[in-house]
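LOG
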Amino acid sequence: MSAEATNPGAQSRRRGRARIDLRRLGRAALLGPAARDRLPDAIGHVAEAHRAHYPDADLATLHKAYVLAESSHRGQFRKSGEPYITHPLAVTLILAELGAETTTLTASLLHDTVEDTDVTLEQVRAEFGAEVSYLVDGVTKLEKVDYGAAAEPETFRKMLVATGNDVRVMSIKLADRLHNMRTLGVMRPEKQARIAKVTRDVLIPLAERLGVQALKTELEDLVFAILHPEEYERTRVLIAENSDACNALAAIADDFRAALREADINAEVLIRPRHFVSVHRVRLKRSELRSTDFGRLLILVAEDADCYAVLGELHTCFTPVISEFKDFIAAPKFNLYQSLHTAVAGPDGAVAEVLIRTHQMHKVAEAGVVALGNPYLPVEGAEPADGERADPTRPGWLSRLLDWQQSTPDPDTFWTSLRADLAQDKEITVFRADGRALGLPAGASCVDAAYAQYGEEAHSCIGARVNGRLATMSTVLGDGDTVHLLLAQDSSSGPSPEWLDHARTPAARIAITSWLDTHPEGVAAPSTAPRRPAPLTGGRPVSANAVVDLPEAAVRLAGCCTPVPPDAVTGFAVRGGSVTVHRETCPAVARMTSVGREPVPVRWGDAPGCRVTLIAESFGRPRLLADLTEVIAGEGAAIVSATVEPPTQQRVRHTYTLQLPDAAGLPALMRAMRDVPGVYDVSRAQHPAATA
């Protein structure tokens, strides 16, 4: 269990609610209530712990599994000298205290039989059924004689694939590693360090993702002691020297109880001491530790609504530290965790961190997926799922992991990618254009979203819209963003090597690297590669279809806003007797009016034709210029001139001056240009004019 246990002295514990204390249970598993030569009595501890969560559980299967495990391991000893059966017993006790159901406990008792004894999977299946056999097989290591140096990564690959079908496989593995870490002292220092590093890089992140905090926090402390012995000793001494630090929290807890009692809120207020790594992190963060930093207050209530009632009462009666407030009930973490976090200052200025949750939330916070029992039992009244069974314990990170591991046959690449993936300990949810959700690690970019949604088809992605706005592929996504990914029609296009700098997920990195390795020459430069502006003439310019009441005055349309009928327009006389016509909303109109220039009334003539300048913003791709000019010609417009600016970040800007036979056709022309694949916006030209 977590060293962040609930206050062992608290007497207000709900009747029948099991106390989780894995260290005590580990000793009980080794020693039993009687002498060590009476080990068969040890199954009684498993039965007692199991019945605390499942009063009506049938223990016959557990007894049967114990008999098989004890007889098959008889004569085997651990490196510490204890009979080997103490290990599966200790692992099973850990899971029983966390609330695992009978099938998981049965498999836990048998988890080493196939690997270390003559018992076969067929025998386990015949005696205990397919589910138990699957769980035992999932945690059985691959033989080193068959896989050599790849045995460890391939064992984890096998275990993770099995976890994708039944998350209870990983529950057993985590409990197995916890007991092994507790008894690691009998091994050589270099082997201790190797096992501790794998535990730190793989098992602890998996425990965090599955929400099994009770196992995660103790594993962290055990790894801390092995890999950082000096820091561990310094932290141990610090905790020992401040053994009475919880007195300050006890006084605040009494004030909380009084305030909640007066508000008629039924709640338990417990002191939750921090474990070693937690104290170490707080010391690094604050340098100087306060007496209240050695623990937190845990408040347990019956219903969700009571959590918010407690929060309101505490924030009313005490001074809240607003920056410390987090609501993981309304927005649960991706590992099932729910709780309200806050901090308040007491009358004497002492600040206490507070966790507020229901009893069920607390059970899930400690045991994670283990607290779900058997998640594969059919729910009463629910429709049977078609195809693959619905699994509430298969979150986005696990589905992503199972997908990308298929693309990494090389064990070293898999092992490196797995550690990198698990090092990302936060998750965000973004939404696709069709409204469906994508789970991604925090810090993921549009590159990651593209490969998560399209797989290898994402090679032809040319950009994205994030929350409706154009974004580059390097754009980092935030929780709740909407991402519309744009793919090129030409399937021959491929990813840029720069995408590797922005890919956070192994799936994206592996797919990009694979494509670049098989296409060392890259792709042909698109037709929108940098070029000098090239005018495309389409006939002599036609005079402006605008009329002013100035005799002999020449009229021209302003290039800064390119007015066309039926725009509201105004004009200004310029040198040479000409009148320049602007849209009334053009910034140049306000600028010239502010300096005292007199506007000239302008009206549109009867001629239907007009000239307009359009700007098309697009992503670079082959044949884009040809497709745009074809659409323009199809709408009956003549191109007076066109320029294409050099691409920047795969974006290209086209400027067209067009002669239209009828101004009424302008909206349809702009819609047709926007429909060209790769074009994300078409607008009328509007830029500052040097002189009117």
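LOG (cont.) second protein
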Amino acid sequence: MATFLYKLGRLSFRRRHFVALIWVALLTLAGVGAASAPAAGNSSFSIPGTEAQKAFDLLEQRFPGASADGATARVVFKAPSGEKMTDPGNKATVQETVKELADGSEVARVTDPYQAKAVSKDGTIAYAQVSYKVSGMELEDSSRDALQDSAQDARKTGLTVEIGGDALQTVPHTGSSEIIGIAVAAVVLVITFGSLVAAGLPLLTALIGVGIGVSTITALASALDLGSTTSTLAMMIGLAVGIDYALFIVSRYRAELAEGRDREEAAGRATGTAGSAVVFAGLTVVIALVGLSVVNIPMLTKMGIAAAGTVAIAVLIALTMVPALLGYAGRRVKPMGEKGKRFGRASKEPSEQPSNKPERPNLGTRWASFVVRRPIAVLLLGVIGLGAAAVPASSLELGLPDDGSQPTSTTQRRAYDLLSEGFGPGFNGPLMVVVDAKDSDDPKAAFAEVGDEIKGLKDVVTVTPPAPNKAGDTATITVIPGSKPSSVTTENLVHGIRDAGTDIKADTDANVLVTGSTAMNIDVSEKLNDALIPYLVLVVGLAFLLLIVVFRSILVPLKAALGFLLSVMAALGAVVAVFQWGWLSGLMGVEQTGPVMSMMPIFMVGVVFGLAMDYEVFLVTRMREAYVHGEKPGQAIVTGFRHGARVVTAAAVIMMAVFAGFIGSSESMVKMIGFGLAIAVFFDAFIVRMAIVPAVLALLGRKAWWLPRWLDRALPNVDVEGEGLRDDPDRGDTDRELVRA
């Protein structure tokens, strides 16, 4: 592989005009496609195989036109101090608001609080429920505006009016976070390379790759039912790996220049060596993202595949466009060790260097030498530290965010609190019980038995009478729990109703299904939790096999996988400590603690695993390269750090900055993802890869690179170390024939 990529790098360097033209054409084509594509709404959300989804599907069949999965909004009214909602003036305001809301084109129905008995016992709080024909993610902005305008008009009369429900649900915008991440990346790259031109190359190529990927997703969004969250994930991951991969190749290019090679040869060797690491690092990311399909949530599968496509584009750009741009840059990209005069650190000519003063080793060399001398102490300190950080993960509780997790400044959170005050905390998470009595001899008796059975369960506050459909074979029953939607008690109630339904089916042949947003959240959390182990086995297993091919070792890939699991567990522990226990919650801007988002563990595994393997492949391949070329195991570790530590550090700092920018979001879910990914990258890059990995390799010595002979013969030789580039007779004397750029 190294020889092929070497030739590709040189070809891209020589034919840079052609290569640049191809990528610009692809970017233009994707941009035109995105601009001309029909506007696509957000992706439809379904959870195949869950009971909540089966109930939704049944409601669509038995209650046609009822919009069972349609968005809902609760407009909550609170009377001024000393007044009641039943006072004539307040009642008139509410009824006028209900009338305005009913005029919306997407509104299916609006309930009058006074007819639906939706007034609190003390008469101070009332609510009107608005049901829409489409889901919250498909709702037009005009409908949301009309909802908010009606509430604002009611506030002018002196009432407190807040809006809850999923009708106001929108996809959070993260543009400012991306800008912050790019700005920090630019600063880190300038410090790393000491040159604006060299720093600009990874940024430019990453932005081009993300532009092509996101534009393609936008162009296909309508046809493939891709939501805006798909492009957000693709942008986040594409920007991260795009900068990393280009950074690796540019850094290796400068190292090759420092060894005296001309620019085309240096570009070829950089692509052949660092490019090989990029290919395999990219494959691990693609495996992790495509592996999300095992969860069997269509939206998550589409997000993973789309992001994987963007990663593949980033790899191709790093292998072709980066060498091409290096050709354009010419002497403006200096050899490693030289700094531009703009920074006041211009290098001296070799003749000007004092011959009697040895060059001081860089920080990476000094650190690796220390670890090689004290491997046991470093290993124990790293493992104990991460183990301590992982302890809170044993108390992990999973759930999906609701209005109760919103900041107190939002109308959704204030409506949530008002409903809890007037009707109890469980009122924010009603359960819809669907009774399918089509096969029952006496449907009405079955409906009544279900209602009576539910009333006898613990934590049930209210059970509404059964509401049958026109055919009389299916009915819905609304159950109000006594606890808030995200509580373990409510989850136990859902399971209790389902367990009771098993006995009822045996008696009446009626199926009992529990659905609604609360039940759906519980089912999604359980589905994601059940899929975590198979996902880990698939992703880590495939990557383990891939890394065996890369490193031609058993213990090095095993160490990489175990180190990754340790860093992910530590990161999950930090998330639990902050978002569930409330540690440092004020510093992080966490206003409401609660269960960790159910998607967080599997999302962290996918994203962090890919990035962790980037650092593992790039750092350890330099060690493997030095070892293959004759260095002793300990010296190979030091050599790998001398060449790779600075680059891996820069890449990790960039990724942490990109992810940490999301901590400032007002959305608790986005905040949690940003914090979790940032702390995971910190743990993995600086503790696992920079400390535990060299310590383990130092302890193992030559055993680290052991591979059974039969397996060595069976595995393909991908030559990631670039052994085929040393004294390759096919190149002849072409180096002397090349014209320096």
